[in-house]
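Re-run requested by the PI after the first attempt was lost when the workstation crashed. Everything re-entered from the original request form. Ligand of interest: magnesium ion.
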Amino acid sequence: MADVQRTLVLIKPDAVQRELVGKVVERFERKGLKIVAMKLAHLDEVTLSEHYGHLKEKPFFGDLLKFMMQTPVVAMIWEGIGVIDEVRKIVGSTNPREADAGTIRADMSMNVPSNMVHASDSVEAAQVEIKRFFRDEEVFTYEKLTDRFHFGEGI
Ligand code: UDP
Ligand code: MG
């Protein structure tokens, strides 16, 4: 069986303010990934302190939390073979000025923390982050008729 994974993506407040939600979703859809959950959520300090726990000691931690609480974010789960690495590739590296051309961050942003998108960076992180942002009944399983064109017959 092919390695079908799920990953968590957040569209951050800068992209919401700049009316780029549709453009971000389009990048993942165009790749052929399957959307299995989506909602708006206003994140609180507790959730964000967990989510960005690895950055707690950084001088920008407080500003990052404030930035993430400015507007609701769009939380999504995308599914597909190897989707965790695929989505990170499409998103690009953390600093948009260093990200490869063609990535979301390089093409549409120029700054941190306002680099548009969060995406899980490993299998373990994806599992924890999906649970952090979604209840089981908010996540959908369905057949997408185009899967075999995108992923081959193995899916
Ligand atoms: N960030 C920041 N300043 C920095 C590094 C990171 O404001 O010097 C923010 C930025 O929004 C980044 C988030 O903190 O996306 C999480 O950082 P991480 O290193 O996990 O990068 P990511 O996984 O988002 O690429
Ligand atoms: Mg990260």
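Saved to the shared folder this time. The pocket of magnesium ion (ligand 2) is lined by residues 121 (CB under 6 Å).
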